[in-house]
Write a structure and sequence with these properties.
Blueprint: H1 6-34, H2 40-63, E1 67-69, H3 70-78, H4 85-95, H5 106-143, E2 145-146, H6 150-162, E3 170-173, E4 182-184, E5 190-193, H7 202-217, H8 220-233, H9 238-261, H10 266-279, E6 291-292, H11 299-306, H12 318-337, E7 338-340, E8 349-354, E9 365-370, E10 375-380, E11 386-389, E12 395-402, E13 409-416, E14 422-427, E15 433-439, E16 449-451, E17 460-462, E18 466-468, E19 470-475, H13 481-485, E20 490-498, E21 504-509, H14 516-526, E22 530-532, E23 534-536, E24 539-541, E25 543-551
Parallel strand pairs: 1-7, 3-5, 8-14, 15-25
Antiparallel strand pairs: 2-3, 4-5, 4-6, 8-11, 9-10, 9-12, 12-13, 16-19, 17-18, 18-23, 19-22, 20-21, 20-25, 23-24
């Protein structure tokens, strides 16, 4: 069993997610700074993709196969101070982005459990805040009354067509006269208005509906919920809180741009927003899970942007959307599969591959699979049959050796101990031959002899060291008349050894339950077969073969 406990495994995994999410969000931050002259819609999409990627990162790390970088592992090793002891062990585990078997001190185990408990407490606290906000929205919407006035519904239809909204949005009036207009929901979006909204002017009505419907058309509420979930998972990460805040700000600015592009005057729009912020209650804390039109926290920057005629207000094009998504996937997938080896490493892992004659086998493929850590490492042998792995983490591995012409070699019990070297010599067996023959009744009583040496070379070169046997003369088995008249049929499985002269030796029936007449027919025919011998390093050798003869009465 691994010396790592459950809490140590989870903590190592959390640190891996922290490091990789940092890289993702830093890339998004740099990209949005570089795109400061682009529209808010483009910057909002960049932050949204980065946040969703950070949420998908832990799932992909568990599902995707590992790719470990020895170069990064060696670089991490250079940072280890001499004699750092347990402190160095902790820092190396933080740097590691793979979960491996490693011996840890009791002090570190206690520290790991304490950190994990703190993280879980923070996660539940932020998640509870999110769930409370959602529950308040549901409760408020349940108590609100639907709004079906003709002027409101006409404006909803107009702006739904402008923003290409296929989902119907419901209008609700809550009981409070001072509630800030807001929207929430994805499949059945809701726009919640204050109780006195029926007396608003037509201009204010159009401004509020345009802004809230722009949120619905851009799916901003769902993206903002992803931001809140990211804050719950990475509550200790300041960059995630910054990303969620920037996501909300760019969302509001993008909707402002959409409203202005629909034909509403910037000055009138700013005036109405200021009046709403001054007369209605601040919903910034009460409704963190909703999208409110006039949060005072960012109104000043929004006013400056909407009154600036040089600001780019274009909507997000499909080309920009797919480019940002492709760039994010190009960063996310390598990060999810990357594993950096820490100092819980075994010594040099090496070995030598021989064939049955004792000669080295070159270009054989060696696969080391650590199923517990979900890692796979591969290498090949050199001309002398030697192979080696560097910086393999300690743990239990399955070793597999593949070489065309040889039977695969499997070792499921290879254990690499921390700091200990592993070296062993492996001998491959020449792969067995297989033949299948189908026999049906025929009018001829003479066995059909087929010369199969034409059309293909008499030797099949495999890997440069083994030349496989090839059947050059086949005698077709005859269906015995007595067996045919009795309706006997079935499959005869024969085992034989192809001798160095190409003759089948030691023919033996593997399935004794078969009709003896069929067995005798198969043995008589196969004993007359001739092969080109199998050559190992140019010398003929004996090799096992399995021959399957199917006797069937159906044509």
């Amino acid at each position: 069993m691994s010396a790592y406990g459950g809490s140590e495994l989870v903590l190592s995994f959390l640190f891996a997610c922290f490091a990789k999410a940092t890289l993702l969000l830093c890339c998004a931050w740099i990209a949005t700074v570089a795109m400061r002259r682009h529209s808010s819609a483009v910057r909002h999409h960049s932050w949204a993709v980065a946040i969703v990627a950070s949420l998908a990162l832990p799932i992909l790390m568990m599902l995707l196969p590992a790719w470990r970088s020895s170069a990064l592992g060696d670089a991490a090793a250079l940072l280890k101070p001499a004699g750092a002891g347990a402190v160095a062990s902790v820092s190396q585990t933080i740097a590691s982005t793979t979960i491996n078997a490693v011996t840890v001190s009791p002090v570190y185990k206690k520290i790991a459990r304490a950190i994990l408990i703190i993280w879980a407490f923070g996660f539940l606290l932020v998640l509870l805040r999110l769930m409370t906000g959602l529950a308040r929205l549901v409760w408020m919407s349940t108590l609100a009354r639907p709004l079906f006035e003709d002027d409101w519904m006409r404006d909803v239809l107009t702006f739904s067509n402008i923003f290409e909204i296929a989902r119907p949005a419901r209008l609700l009036q809550c009981r409070s006269l001072l509630a800030m207009p807001l929207t929430w929901g994805f499949l059945r979006p809701v726009i919640v208005l204050p109780a006195g909204s029926s007396t608003w002017t037509a201009e204010r009505r159009r401004i509020v509906l345009a802004h809230e419907l722009a949120h619905i058309g851009r799916h901003d509420w769902l993206v903002q919920i992803c931001g809140e979930l990211a804050r719950a998972v990475y509550w200790f990460h300041p960059l995630v809180w910054l990303a969620a805040a920037r996501l909300r700000h760019e969302s509001e600015c993008a909707c402002d741009d959409a409203v202005l592009m629909s034909g509403i005057s910037p000055s009138r729009y700013a005036s109405e927003l200021l009046d709403l912020a001054r007369t209605l209650e601040n919903s910034g804390r009460a409704w963190t899970t909703s999208l409110a039109i006039a949060r005072p926290s960012n109104l000043e920057r929004r006013f400056a942007a909407m009154l600036n005629s040089s600001v780019n207000r274009k909507s997000l094009s499909n080309k920009a959307k797919y480019l940002i998504l492709c760039f994010a996937l190009g960063c996310l997938l390598p990060l999810a599969t990357l594993r950096v080896s820490a100092q819980n490493l075994a010594g040099k892992t090496s070995g030598t591959i021989h064939d049955p004659s004792g000669s080295p086998v070159a270009n054989a493929t060696i696969v080391m699979s650590n199923h517990g850590a979900n890692t796979i490492d591969m290498t090949t042998t050199d001309r002398d049959g030697n192979f080696s792995f560097k910086s393999l983490p300690a743990g239990k591995y399955e070793l597999q050796v593949y070489k065309p012409g040889f039977a695969p070699l499997h070792r499921a019990d290879v254990t690499l101990d921390p700091g200990a070297e592993f070296a062993e010599v492996f001998t491959l067996s020449v792969g067995a031959d297989f033949e299948t023959v189908r026999v049906v009744p025929s009018g001829s009583e003479k066995p059909a002899v087929t010369d199969e040496s034409d059309g293909k070379p008499s030797r099949l070169g495999i890997g440069g060291t083994v030349e496989a046997a090839k059947l050059i003369k086949r005698v077709q088995p005859i269906y015995p008349e007595s067996a045919k008249s009795d309706g006997a049929q079935g499959t005869v499985v024969l085992h034989a050894v192809i001798g160095m002269d190409g003759k089948p030796l030691s023919l033996r029936v593997m399935n004794s339950e078969i009709d003896p007449r069929l067995s005798r027919s198969a043995v008589e025919a196969v004993s007359q077969w001739r092969y080109s011998p199998t050559l190992l390093n140019g010398e003929p050798i004996e090799v096992d073969t399995t021959i399957t003869v199917n006797y069937t009465l159906e044509p």
